[in-house]
Amino acid sequence: MAKKLFMRGNEVIAEAAINAGCRFYAGYPITPQNEIPEYMSWRMPDVGGTFIQAESELAAINMVYGASAAGARAMTSSSSPGISLKQETISYLAGAELPAVIVNMQRGGPGLGNISGSQADYFQAVKGGGHGDYKLLVYAPYNLQELWDFTMLAFDKTDEYRNPVMILGDGILGQMMEPFYETPYVKPVLPEKTWALTGCKGRAPNVIKSLYMGEGELEYRNGILQKKYKKMKDHEVRFEAIGVEDAETVVVAFGIAARIALSAVKRLRNEGVKIGFFRPITLFPFPEKELAALAKPDRRFITIELNAGQMVEDVRLSVNGKSEVLFYGRTGGAIMTPEEIYEELSGSPVIKS
Questions:
Q1: C-alpha angle 89/93/95, rounded to 5°?
Q2: What fold, for 240-352?
Q3: What's the CA gap between 96 and 212, in Å, rounded?
Q4: How far apart are CA 178 and CA 9, in angstroms?
Q5: Total-model pTM
Q6: What is the pLDDT of residue 349?
Q7: Which of 161, 186, 229, 341 could form a disulfide with 264 if both were Cys (CB 3.0 to 4.6 A apart)?
């Protein structure tokens, strides 16, 4: 039986990564994710891995590029402004089809903002924050058990698809402490990394690049990538739905906002309100088909987010005009409470209609 541990969220990510075989970590300090590099700095030597505190975010992500190209399971982590600095090389990783796990523990913005939790990097994560037509597989955990499970899964999926995977958390999730089960890591059967730069050793040299100058070459490469993203859409969608069958109102939220909102939804449900809860776990691929199946004229949706309204756009696209979609959010690292959401839902035309 898996034993129960009590740790901080950032430390959960780090230990889960090591359990999943991460043996290279490069990062640069920024609050509120500093416990990840701190933890890695003393744990990596225990497992024969490499920890590097780079001179900058740019250096860190490019070191991950190099380690991944050599076949290592590699990870970096940062918070919002630091992730922005990494965007160019994230695009390079996607273009070169290199696996890497990237953790963003979001903070308030724009600019340097503050160190409170936020969800304002949704667009950056799911729409491709760097240049070119690329996508990341994006997980949005909402408790420490999911931080543990999805961090380990991220290393498998990044190798399976040869594509960067992002864990999109926030300052609250990274700093909170709660018990979780240390479920064992079981590595699936994955293709051998025959593409890695391990030295020729009597074989033809491997070439890893994202520069294609020949006529039609880059379009061909983009076609391969788009097929991969479609495969993710077909096989990697994850979500949670509670009480949506008879709901007149469906609350849609992800990450820590979903955890806060769920308390209000349960309270209203206990009071007899026909309200449901839908939580996207993968932000890309987004559960658009599942939301579309719930849309109908006599049902309304309201998204709850710690931003000015980002995921709500994907909800509206999914619903495609069949239902009204409303939004409630807080910006700049302001954190809502279950009581606040309860009052907002209780007084909203969604509930009163």
A1: 110
A2: Rossmann fold (3.40.50)
A3: 10
A4: 8
A5: 0.96
A6: 53
A7: 341
